[in-house]
Amino acid sequence: MRRLAAAVAIALVAAGCGSSKPSPAPPQGPPTLRNHGNAAARVQQVEAARAGIVAAGGLYAIAHPADARHQLALAGRAYSPMSPLVRATHPVLDREIRAAFATIDELIARGARPAGVELRLGMVQGQLLEAALDATSSRAARSDPTVDAVALDRFVAQLDSSYALSARLGAAPEGRRAFQTAYGLLARSQSLYHSIADALGPQRKRVGNALGGIAKKAFPLGVARPAGRPRPGKVHTRALRVRAALAERFGI
Questions:
Q1: Is the pLDDT score of 217 beyond 80?
Q2: By mean pLDDT, which of 10-24, 44-58, 115-129, 177-191 is the weakest?
Q3: Domain that holds residue 137
Q4: Is 229 helix (H, G, I), strand (E, B) or coil?
Q5: Across all residues in the chain, what is the average pLDDT?
Q6: CA-CA 20 to 30 A from 232: which of 22, 24, 30, 158?
């Protein structure tokens, strides 16, 4: 589990790296213009589930099982709208995903070894949810970078509001959990950024640097809330930079 948390932390501060090789302009406008609106919704649901899984894994690694279960429950709820769609064509896959959430919750409640929990979380986050996306989205939609760009735009907006809420509520349980939710959203925003990095073209460094700045300023300890005053203004400024860059590049 600590390996999972360390890997996420490394990814969060690695933004902005990579080639500056020019790339052709991506499709312009929202995915609905190319009949990819449903795929965009599916990506957002899967990534929201993955955000909860990332936060749950990090929290269990630092011995916060109650908060880990809360984030896992959020992940399960994020998958719920997809469940009937997956079940319609791949009932075994849907059953496996729902059973995995229940099993992991039970393992955390029992205080199971972190390595076993980490393995199951990784399977749901990777193999199973990726298969759910494949089962509900066309190949053309999955290859449209604006699908991930829209998800990134929404996630950065949600990250901004969740972090601001955590700053307002302070040490209250709701404030702590809003911070943890924001961390998961940042982790998956980083993943979405890497998935469209080439398509970002001249906006690649701008987006990467802004996300990396959020990670360093607001989440220096990962999912563990640091001491000291929160910095919602700095997060908001960088979130606006990301969203402006996405709008300029993709026309969304």
A1: yes
A2: 10-24
A3: 2-250
A4: coil
A5: 91
A6: 30
Helix axis angle for 173-195 and 2-12, nearest 10°, is 70
Task: Give how far Cα 124 sits from Cα of 119, 130, 131, 168, Å.
Answer: 9, 9, 10, 33
d(CA 108, CA 226): 24
| Helices 129-136, 37-61: crossing angle, 10 deg rounding | 170
pLDDT of residue 16: 45
- For the entire predicted model, the pTM comes to 0.88
Residue position matching structure tokens 């073209």: 201
- Beta-carbon-side half-sphere exposure of residue 151 (alpha carbons within 13 Å): 33
* Total Cβ atoms within 10 A of residue 85: 17
Distance in angstroms (rounded) separating the CA atoms of residues 238 and 252 = 18
Mean pLDDT of 43-55: 97
Residue type, 74: L
**C-alpha dihedral (64, 10, 166, 206), degrees to nearest 10:** -170
Task: Using alpha carbons, select from 149, 218, 211, 150 the residue that is nearest to residue 17.
Answer: 211
Torsion of CA 2, 19, 244, 234, to 10 degrees: 40
Number of domains in the chain: 1
The amino acid present at 47, given as its one-letter code, is: E
pLDDT single digits (tens) 123-159:
999 999 999 999 998 888 888 999 999 999 999 999 9
